[in-house]
């Protein structure tokens, strides 16, 4: 198989600057569990980028980050509203529900996005003890379908949530790609639009591994976050190696450079596959993901050479993704493989 796949940005290598940051952090001893200079500097940098009053907690992975964030906002009799396609609902094996005892209230959508119309029915939830109480609205930016909330759209959604005394959590596994696509800074794309808590993704944008839970108001978690992270098995003993990665990612807006490149490679792929007879792109292409349908036999032929996912076998609908290390020649070779498969 070729060195590059088009299945997921999880499959990407570590970015060179990130790997160097890990090596640089590997000199001498450092106090464990986040009581080190790297973590202190990384937290300070997050506060510069997002909000001075932010509380920041580094975790190993996205599922852990989501669980830690949401568990600090909810009681066991409360619930989280999210799209039915959200990673929280479909790909985290019920981790949040098991960890907290809370319920997820999934909403069927056509594009992976919540709207005021889909949220309004939850404002009529009975306050009787027989019913769970909505407490958090959780959205993904970008969504699992590669779609985006526009700034005005997200601002309106957050205002509506707050009017109903709900928090807004953003699963930002790909927030860098979304912010780059929208031409916004990280704060402009999150805190300034009304988001209360962000799980900021690093793994999908060049890091070896690491996510950050960012409470824009440190009072939101009521002192629970350190304990939730420990109980959730997300407290790294050698925290400096996660923190050092984030320092490098935020330095000189590397997050934007990596994400912009990934998005550009998807644009290149989109432009070329649209010219191939037999390929139909099924969803708007906004970041670094393309969804498409093509002949089932052709898919099988392509998959003998390249790894990617068929997300809906009934259509069949595939997903092709690029990342920070995808090269133009990788895209062009993949396009050639698609075209060849459809000729057979």
Task: Describe it.
It is globular, with a radius of gyration of 20 Å. The protein is α/β, with parallel strands linked by helices. The strands form 2 sheets. A 7-stranded mixed beta sheet has the order 1-7-6-5-4-2-3, with helices on both faces. A 4-stranded antiparallel beta sheet has the order 8-9-11-10, covered by helices on one side. It contains 13 helices and 11 strands. It has 2 domains: 15-252, Type I PLP-dependent aspartate aminotransferase-like (Major domain) (Aspartate Aminotransferase, domain 2, 3-Layer(aba) Sandwich); 254-343, Alpha-Beta Complex (Aspartate Aminotransferase, domain 1), CATH 3.90.1150.10. The mean pLDDT is 97.
User: Tell me about the biggest sheet?
Assistant: 7 strands, mixed
Give the strand line-up of the largest sheet: 1-7-6-5-4-2-3
**In the residues, how many domains can be counted?**
2
Determine the oligomeric state from the structure: single chain
Percent of residues in β-strands: 15-25%
Structural class: alpha/beta
Give the CATH architecture of the largest domain. 3-Layer(aba) Sandwich
* Basic shape: globular
* Computed CA radius of gyration, to the nearest angstrom: 20 Å
Terminus-to-terminus distance: 20 Å
- Helix run count: 13
Question: In CATH's first tier, which class of the largest domain applies?
Answer: Alpha Beta
Arithmetic mean of pLDDT: 97
At CATH level 3, the topology of the largest domain is Aspartate Aminotransferase, domain 2
């Amino acid at each position: 198989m070729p060195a590059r796949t088009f299945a997921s940005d999880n499959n990407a290598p570590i970015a060179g600057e990130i790997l160097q940051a890990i090596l640089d952090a590997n000199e001498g001893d450092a106090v464990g569990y986040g009581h080190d200079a790297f973590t202190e500097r990384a937290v300070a940098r997050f506060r510069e980028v997002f909000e001075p009053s932010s509380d920041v907690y580094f975790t190993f992975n996205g599922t852990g980050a989501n669980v830690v964030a949401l568990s600090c906002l909810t009681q066991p009799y409360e619930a989280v509203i999210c799209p039915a396609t959200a990673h929280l609902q479909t790909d985290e094996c019920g981790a949040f529900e098991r960890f907290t005892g809370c319920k997820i209230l999934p909403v069927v959508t056509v594009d992976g996005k919540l709207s005021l119309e889909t949220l309004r029915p939850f404002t009529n939830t009975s306050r009787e003890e027989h019913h769970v109480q909505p407490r958090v609205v959780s959205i993904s930016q970008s969504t699992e379908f590669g779609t985006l909330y526009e700034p005005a759209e997200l601002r309106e959604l957050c205002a509506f949530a707050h009017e109903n005394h709900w928090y807004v959590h953003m699963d930002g596994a790909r927030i860098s790609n979304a912010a780059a696509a929208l031409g916004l800074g990280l704060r402009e794309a999150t805190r300034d639009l009304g988001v209360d808590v962000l799980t900021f993704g690093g793994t999908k944008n060049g890091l070896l591994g690491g996510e950050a839970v960012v409470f824009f108001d440190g009072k939101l978690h009521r002192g629970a976050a350190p304990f939730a992270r420990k109980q959730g098995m997300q407290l790294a003993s050698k925290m400096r190696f996660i923190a050092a990665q984030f320092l490098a990612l935020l330095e000189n807006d590397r997050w934007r450079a990596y994400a912009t490149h990934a998005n550009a490679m998807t644009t290149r792929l989109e432009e070329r596959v649209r010219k191939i007879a037999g390929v139909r792109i099924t969803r708007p292409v906004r970041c670094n993901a393309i969804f498409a349908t093509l002949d089932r036999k052709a898919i099988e032929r392509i998959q003998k050479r390249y790894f990617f996912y068929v997300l809906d076998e009934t259509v069949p609908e595939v997903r092709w993704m690029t990342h920070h290390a995808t090269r133009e020649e990788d895209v062009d070779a993949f396009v050639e493989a698609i075209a060849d498969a459809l000729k057979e």
